Amino acid sequence: MKARIRKRPKRGQSASPRSVAARALVSWISADPSSRGPLSRIINDFLGQIPPQDPRDRALARELTFGVVRHLSLLEYRLGRFLRSGRRLHPVVRVHLLLGAYQILFLDRIPQRAAVDEAVKAVRSSGQAWACGVVNAVLRKLAERKEKDSGNEAAVFGGRGLSPVEVLSLETSHPAWMVQRWVDRYGLQVAGSLCRTNNLPASVVLRVNRIRISRDNAVKLLEDAGIAAEKGLFSRDAVRLPDFRGDPSLIPGFETGLFQVQDEASQMAALLLSPMAGEKVLDACAGPGGKTTHLAEIAGDNASIDAIDPSGQRLDLLRENVRRLGIRSITVLNYERFMRESAKSAGMYQKVLVDAPCSGLGVIRRHPDIKWNRSAEGISELSRIQARCLRDFSKMVAPGGELVYSVCTMEPEETSRQIEAFLSENPEWRVINAGERLDARAGKFITGEGYLMILPESHGPDGFFAALLTKTR
C-alpha cells in the first residue's frame, strides 16, 4: 500500500503538530529499517510546515513523533487487544491509531475525547474514511481500558504466559533480543532500569567554546536569558539545561559560536586525548565535528587537526560547525584520497581519535529509533568495522603518541573486547587509565582496566565507552 505522506497545507496555512508528526511517522514506518534515515532528520524535513515563530507547535510535533517511536511496541500491543488478529492496516491508519494511543496513554494534558476525535478526523481527511469507525471504536476502548488498568501492570501483561524478558520488552518498548542481552549481562533489575532510563527525555547539554567564553560567563548569559543552566559534573566544558525543550539553535550565543550541543559523555572523549598546542592530530571518524571542534578548543585552536569521514554530508555539517565556532586549526581532508595514500600518514600524528561507527545503544533516549533499526547481527558486523578502524588508524600514531577509541554503546563486542583483541595483537600498545585525564567525579565510570564505561542513568551522561592507549615504541 502506497502511503500518502506529503500532502502539505495550503500557502499561508500552518500545519498542525499532529499532522506533521503523522507525515513524519508514515515516512519512517514505511521505510526499510535497515536503510531508513535517522528519525531526527525525518522530522526536521517536515517541521518546515510549521513556522519557526510557533516553537510550541514545533516542539509538540517532535514530542508526538518521538513519543510514538519511543513507546512503539507497547502502543501496538495495547492497540492489538482491540484489533482483529492478523488485520493489516494502511500505514496512514496505523500511524493515526498510534498517535491517538500515545496521546491517551502518555499525554494527560490532552483530553481523551479530543485525542479520539482528532484521530478520526485525520483518518477521514487522509482519504481513508473507511477506517473512521475502526479508529473511533479502538481508541475509545483503549481509553476505557486505561481507566480500568490504571496502576495495575498485571491487568495489561498478566495471564498471557509472557516471560519476564517479554514483559520488560513490551512494557519499555525495547526489542526482546536487546533486553535479553542486557538481562544476561546485568540481571533483570539493572536491565529494567536501563530500559526505563532510555524512555526518559534527556537534558540538553551544551559544550562551552572555551576559546570564546568561560563556563561561568556562559551560565550567567543563559540565566540572564531566562534559561535555567547548571555546570556539568564530569566535563569542565559542560553546561546542562535541565528544563530546556526547545530548538538549541535558538539559544542566545549559539549562532555566534559560544556553544555546541554535546552530551558530557561525548565531551569526555576529547578530554581524554587532551591535544596540546603544536601537536598534529587526526580525527579519523569526524562526523559532524562535535569532538573535532572540542579537540581544537582544548588546544587553544593552536594544534594542527586533520579531519576525515566517509560521509560527505556529515563533513558539510562539520564545516558549518567549524565556521560557526570560529575554529581555524581544523583541515578537512578527502577521505578516499587519505585512505588510498594512508602509507604516507604512518607515524605522522601525536594524537588520534577513533570515534568508531557503532550500534549507538547508549544514546537510545536521544534517538529512540535506534531500538528498531538495529539487530544482533548488525552489532557483529559493526564490531568487524571497528576492529578495522583500530588497526588502520593506529598505524598513523607516532611512537610515544596516543589514541582514543570511543563508541556510544556499552556492548562488549564494541567496547572492552575490541580493545583486548587489539592489545593482544599489538604488544607495543598499552592502556593509560582514563581516570588520569578526567575530573575525579568521573571516577565512578572508570573500570578496573582503566576504561571509561558509562551506563545511561536518569540525569546522567549518555551510554558511552572510551579507552586511552599509548604507543610505547
Structure description:
This protein is of the alpha/beta class. It folds into two domains: 17-161, Orthogonal Bundle (N-utilizing Substance Protein B Homolog, Chain A); 264-471, Vaccinia Virus protein VP39 (Rossmann fold). The chain is built from 19 helices and twelve strands. The protein has helices spanning 17-30, 39-47, 55-70, 72-80, 91-106, 112-125, 132-149, 153-157, 164-172, 176-186, 188-198, 215-224, 264-273, 290-298, 312-325, 335-340, 370-373, 376-394, 416-425; strands at residues 204-208, 230-231, 238-241, 259-261, 280-283, 304-307, 330-332, 349-355, 397-407, 429-432, 452-454, 464-471. Strands 5, 6, 7, 8, 9, 10, 11 and 12 form an eight-stranded mixed sheet that branches. A four-stranded antiparallel sheet has the order 2-3-1-4, covered by helices on one side. The longest helix is centred in the last third of the chain and has 19 residues, at 376-394. The model is unreliable at 1-7 (pLDDT under 50).
Biggest beta-sheet profile: 8 strands, mixed
Classified by CATH, the class of the largest domain is Alpha Beta
The residue fraction in helices comes out at: 40-55%
Count structural domains. 2
Approximate shape? globular
**Proportion of residues in extended strands:** 5-15%
**CATH arch. level architecture of the largest domain:** 3-Layer(aba) Sandwich
In the predicted model, the low-confidence regions spanning at least 5 consecutive residues are: 1-7
Radius of gyration over all CA atoms, rounded: 24 Å
